[in-house]
Amino acid sequence: MSLRREMDHKEAVETMAAQRYVLDEMTPEDQDAFEEHFFGCAECAADIKDSETIADTLRSEKNVVKKFSPRQSQTRWLAIAASFALVAVLGYQNLHTIPGLRRETAVARSPRLVASYYLRESVRAAEQPETVNGSEAFTLDFDFVPPPNAKSVAVDVVDAAGRMRIHQAIAAEQVRDSVHLLVPAGSLPPGRYMLRARSEPAGPPDSVLSFTVR
User: Which domain does 24 fall in, by range?
Assistant: First the structure.
């Protein structure tokens, strides 16, 4: 059994494959090879769309283009529709998704000042927890000394319903008596939260602190 070949883009352009495909002037072997190619080629898919538009105009006005059989027409329109979908997805990514990700990455990498909140264990039961502004990025700073045998320090932020909102871990050797947790803007809705820091393997008792997001 012979393997199906795939037509490369240079061959497709030089042989006007898109136009011949629409006009049904390809051999079955060339047709299969071109279909293998244009499913992943936005440029050839666009050429097919343009060729179909021209062909439809000629059919309606001069009736000089050979019509496809119902089976051929259905198969090819499914293939062409899939290619158009690919073109649409690639176009949306190029116009919207990718530029947006680039902007977000640039912002994340740019030096900036953020609010810093120091959390400490309450001395009195009536003492109010630290209140932070959740609409902007901020850091939660707290003291934590991992034991000598600790491999890592894990930090969890849990909401009032017990759902874990943030989980981060850092190598214990990077902790110098304190930890600074950067929280992105808008990642925590308003409410009361508990922050739990622990060493792994288990060492001293966990450090459990509270704060409120407004």
Answer: 9-109
